[in-house]
Amino acid sequence: MQLRSSITDHNQGEGEPDKVSGIYTMKQQLRELDFMRALAALAVIAIHVSGGYALSSRAGYTLNQVTRFAVPMFIILSGYLLFYSDAGKERVRYLEFIKKRFKKIVIPYVIWTVIYFVYSFRHKLDVLWNDKATLLNTLGKDLIYGVTWYHLYFIIIILQLYLLYPLLRSLFMKWPKCTLLLSFAVTFGTEIGVYLSQLGFLKMPRLFLPYHVIFITWIFYFVIGIYLVDRLSKWQKKLSSKSIYLGLLWLVCIVVVIIEGKAAKTFESSMRPTITLYCLASFLFFYVILHRMRETEAKWGKILDWISKQSFLIYFAHPIILSELRLRVFKGKMLPLVNGGTGMLVLLFAATAVTILLTLLLSRIPLTSFLGGVYEKKRFGWGSKTRDKALGA
Predict the structure, then answer these.
(1) For 17, phi and psi rounded to 5 degrees?
(2) CB 304 within 8 Å of CB 30
(3) Quick one: which of 21, 67, 104, 305 could link to 43 by a disulfide (CB 3.0–4.6 Å)?
(4) Which residue has the higher pLDDT, 319 or 128?
């Protein structure tokens, strides 16, 4: 997702069409995409909080389904920002590309995997330490499959897509529509297969990675992000004139996702055809609304800017905060505070607030980039004038 990114080194205004790619490279901050990334980061926290209430609370189930756009939207933004940042380049140097991302993605992923590994086995560390072969074998598998904690699988998805990016970029430059259609066929076909398998109508073959982790399930989102780079600006006026219809489409998609998830009992998964349609509707609707707000100087805009910039760190850190709140804070006499739909909102607010506070503190540490954060040496606060480069830049 990124995860953590902003297009940088672009001034306000518009540029000329790129001679190599034909992309109309707009020289602007793309602040609306920053806002979208911030919303996706907050939505991920909401998914993980509401997951514990989905079966017992109507509000919990609804929130869980409404925020299901988050992970696919992160992937769309990753594809968009990578391709945007490479506009004008005839080709991408593969080894240079991979090396550049090693520090940004792999190092934080390894560090956080070790942190969550130690945290999950904190009561058995002495046993594991005495059996180092088992310890290294377990940790090695966790790193490969992203299963140390429930959110780390996403990094494995991103790593696969980044490894494929130079090839996808080359194919897209030559055959854009064919590449998009092929990626759609691969992802949608996989979703249908997994969906039918969940319903008991089909048995999917076992692959080297689970279907929720392997790239074929997500490649369409990545490619459509690439596809939208030179189209969103062209579609802007038309999309803005249809904003009411986009809003209605978005609401219809929400209703379909809510009904379908409960009827088919697939609500715990984001690998659903209905989620694909819902995410695309969400992306276009959010883009139109947030595009109108991108020049805002209001406090909420600066807060979203900051959350966007630190979204990778927020993504890594929030589950351990949520776990500690459940285990150590909201227990005993405090437990009623987090019961039911209202309690879910209390827990969501607490998890979000503490995660943001921790991220704010970590952002003051020079080595925070190794944790996925962006170092802010000058001051605390929102809306720093410096923006971090896109994770894909």
Answers:
(1) -60, 135
(2) no
(3) 67
(4) 319
Angle made by CA atoms 7, 12, 18, in degrees to the nearest 5? 70
pLDDT tens, 155-184?
A: 999 999 999 999 999 999 999 999 999 999
> What does the pLDDT read at residue 7?
32
Q: Dihedral through CA 76, CA 81, CA 84, CA 85, nearest 10?
A: -150
Q: Which two tokens stand for residue 115?
A: 């942190």
Cα separation, 263 vs 255, in Å, equals 12
Q: Report the alpha-carbon distance of residue 276 to residue 187 in Å, rounded.
A: 9
Mark residue 223 as left, alpha or beta (left: phi above 0; alpha: psi -120 to 50; beta: remaining). Answer: alpha
* pTM of the predicted protein model: 0.87
User: Is the Cβ–Cβ distance between 162 and 105 less than 8 Å?
Assistant: yes
Instruction: Using pLDDT thresholds of 50, 70 and 90, give the confidence band for residue 130.
Output: confident
What mean pLDDT is predicted for residues 360-379? 90
Query: Which token pair is 386?
Result: 């410096």
CA neighbor of 9 nearest in space, from 98, 90, 97, 88 = 88
Q: Exposure string (b/e) for 14-45, b if CB count within 10 Å is 16 or more?
A: eeeeeeebebbbbebbbbbbbbbbbbbbbbbb
pLDDT digits (tens, 9 = 90+) for 1-53: 333 333 333 333 333 444 334 443 343 558 999 999 999 999 999 999 999 99
CA-to-CA distance for 182 and 95, rounded, in angstroms? Answer: 26
Measured distance CA(217)–CA(240) in Å, rounded:
31
Position 252 pLDDT exceeds 60: yes
The contacts of residue 140 (CB under 8 Å, 6+ apart) are none
Place of tokens 């593969």: 94
Q: How far apart are CA 352 and CA 54, in angstroms?
A: 19
Structure tokens at 285: 């609707």
Sign of CA dihedral 195, 199, 204, 209: positive
Considering all CA atoms of the chain, what is the largest pairwise distance in Å, rounded to the nearest integer?
66
Per-residue pLDDT at 374 exceeds 50: yes
